[in-house]
């Protein structure tokens, strides 16, 4: 038995045994109170009367009644623009050192989200909790002596006035504890590389020098990195290079769409642990092995609210209507889609993060990500969420024995009639009409609203299959490769026209 690994594992076990076991509901009440106490003398806190909210008999109810919802553009225009000018105490005490750049999945222009010292500490603390949760997965002691490959954005942050800017993965990696640096790969020098292709090429060259036990990063980019390493060393699977690889933690993207193609890169199964790290904070992570759901981090600087994901509450641009009701953790129900609202130690308040979630276990505060508010396709009443799309595509993978790790679609008008046009990323040749019919039937069976739409305004389904690499090149063209970049799943007609032109150009190059 590895002595050092055994000591680390024992220390983690002991730490887990003495951690306070407050209920998630109780923890959330305390988090909100602490957030309000800390920010009551900021410009935002004074404007919205945090002191009076704290005096209310029901602080959660008063908070909901007194403060409106904010999306990024409202928060930035009304408040964070002052922070970016260097003014102190705007939405959180002091001035943040960092701004996280997030183009997300919906645009070229980067959002700039403040990252305070308190948020850095919260992310670090949650990261330690996640490591502690590994003991639930019955991982052998020698795992704790292996190295961890964290594939993220560049840690070479850009100076803008008095701030440092970069993606949250780069900010987090630049603040890793000193004691962890010996385990962290690809190491500081390679992690600072801005060019993603050069970074991955350098990782591939050095791969045999490292004893990797765990991987961490977004599935699509991790898969490309692994393929590059295998190609460079002429390996049949990644375990020929890293025989001790046992764990993969994802980065805020559901793993299921990539599971089939990812597993083909392995010699044997590994433990996959989902995490939910966004530019706004480390929101959740998988805490135990007998589920694929993630446990919300309810006691560490983030207060959550939940708006039922219904068409009448969602505006066309994906924002929330003012009268949309918000529920606390004590009021939610399982298997219902909710729009996630957060308030945090970075000075985000009743903030629409853009994701939808559903609870799989309310008592344990365990969730799954079900989609994005902007990726809700309801042009002709079809009410398709990303989650329903993903479920249908997993059925297509089984039915036709293919892999579909990437997709996008739009509602398009052809001769004054609406069609759903899907682009599926697959390396397998398949009859487009056959899979279109199967996909259509699957969605009809699973979704009554879709079935009604298909009998009326939605006239049909078109499918175009393309190489999955085209999706990655699209991301490279519109944003950049690697990091937190994710493919948009639903496009409007205007964006879809640009996409189709791009696909044609890539096919002509091929």
UniProtKB/TrEMBL annotation:
<dbReference type="GO" id="GO:0016881">
    <property type="term" value="F:acid-amino acid ligase activity"/>
</dbReference>
<dbReference type="InterPro" id="IPR055377">
    <property type="entry name" value="GH3_M"/>
</dbReference>
<protein>
    <submittedName>
        <fullName>GH3 auxin-responsive promoter family protein</fullName>
    </submittedName>
</protein>
<dbReference type="InterPro" id="IPR004993">
    <property type="entry name" value="GH3"/>
</dbReference>
<feature type="domain" description="GH3 middle">
    <location>
        <begin position="297"/>
        <end position="363"/>
    </location>
</feature>
<feature type="domain" description="GH3 C-terminal">
    <location>
        <begin position="390"/>
        <end position="494"/>
    </location>
</feature>
<dbReference type="Pfam" id="PF23571">
    <property type="entry name" value="GH3_M"/>
</dbReference>
<dbReference type="Pfam" id="PF03321">
    <property type="entry name" value="GH3"/>
</dbReference>
<dbReference type="Pfam" id="PF23572">
    <property type="entry name" value="GH3_C"/>
</dbReference>
<dbReference type="InterPro" id="IPR055378">
    <property type="entry name" value="GH3_C"/>
</dbReference>
<dbReference type="GO" id="GO:0005737">
    <property type="term" value="C:cytoplasm"/>
</dbReference>
């Amino acid at each position: 038995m590895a002595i050092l690994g055994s000591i680390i594992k024992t220390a983690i076990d002991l730490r887990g045994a003495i951690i306070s076991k407050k209920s998630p509901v109780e923890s959330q009440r305390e988090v909100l109170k602490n957030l309000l106490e800390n920010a009551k003398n900021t410009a935002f806190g004074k404007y919205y009367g945090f002191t009076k909210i704290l005096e209310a008999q029901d602080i959660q109810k008063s908070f909901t009644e007194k403060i409106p919802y904010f999306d990024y553009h409202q928060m930035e225009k009304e408040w964070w623009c002052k922070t970016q000018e260097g003014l102190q105490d705007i939405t959180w005490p002091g001035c943040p050192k960092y701004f996280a750049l997030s183009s997300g999945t919906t645009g070229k222009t980067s959002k700039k989200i403040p990252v305070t010292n308190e948020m850095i500490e919260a992310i670090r603390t949650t990261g330690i909790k996640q490591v502690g949760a590994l003991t639930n997965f019955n991982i052998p002691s020698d795992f704790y002596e292996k190295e961890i490959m964290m594939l993220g954005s560049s840690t070479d942050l850009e100076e803008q006035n008095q701030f440092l800017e970069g993606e949250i993965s780069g900010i987090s990696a630049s603040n890793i504890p000193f004691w962890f640096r010996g385990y962290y790969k690809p190491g500081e020098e390679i992690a600072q590389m801005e060019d993603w292709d050069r970074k991955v090429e350098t990782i591939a060259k050095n791969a045999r020098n490292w004893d990797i036990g765990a991987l961490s990063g977004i599935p699509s980019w991790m898969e490309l990195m692994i393929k590059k390493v295998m190609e460079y060393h002429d390996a049949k699977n990644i375990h020929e290079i890293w025989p001790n690889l046992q764990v993969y933690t994802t980065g805020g993207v559901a793993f299921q769409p990539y599971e089939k193609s990812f597993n083909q890169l392995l010699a044997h199964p590994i433990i996959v642990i989902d995490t939910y790290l966004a530019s706004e904070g480390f929101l959740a992570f998988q805490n135990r092995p007998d589920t694929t759901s993630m446990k919300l981090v309810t006691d560490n600087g983030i207060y959550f609210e939940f708006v039922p994901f219904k068409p009448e509450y969602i505006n066309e641009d994906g924002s929330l209507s003012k009268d949309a009701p918000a529920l606390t953790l004590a009021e939610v129900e399982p298997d219902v889609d909710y729009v996630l609202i957060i308030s945090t130690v970075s000075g985000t308040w009743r903030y629409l993060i853009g994701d939808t979630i559903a609870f799989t276990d309310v008592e344990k505060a365990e969730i799954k990500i079900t989609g994005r508010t902007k990726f809700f396709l309801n042009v002709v009443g079809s009410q398709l969420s990303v989650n329903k799309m993903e479920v249908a595509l997993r059925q297509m993978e089984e039915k036709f024995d293919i892999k579909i790790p990437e997709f996008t679609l739009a509602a398009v008008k052809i001769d004054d009639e609406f069609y759903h046009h899907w682009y599926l990323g697959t390396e397998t040749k398949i009859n487009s009409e056959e899979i279109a019919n199967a996909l259509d039937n699957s969605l009809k069976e699973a979704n009554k609203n879709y079935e009604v739409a298909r009998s009326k305004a939605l006239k049909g389904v078109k499918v175009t299959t393309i190489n999955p690499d085209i999706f990655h090149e699209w991301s490279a063209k519109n944003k950049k490769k690697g990091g937190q970049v994710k493919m948009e799943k639903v496009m409007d007609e205007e964006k879809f026209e640009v996409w189709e032109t791009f696909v044609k150009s890539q096919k002509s190059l091929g």
